[in-house]
Predict the structure of Large ribosomal subunit protein bL33c.
Amino acid sequence: MAKGKDIRVTVILECTNCAQNSVNVNKESTGISRYITQKNRHNTPSRLELRKFCPCCCKHMIHAEIKK
């Protein structure tokens, strides 16, 4: 049986570069790259940051965990 709080939680990773440049309206790319993954709450209590491919930037960038 499952306990009250799940150990593994679903998190959303968002490109930090696209999030900073989304305020610029002159930029051709209007999308923000996001990935959905899971993390273990006990092993990784802090925010998750991974280097993943961003199709908007066309290169590998740091994707950070955001609030739901």
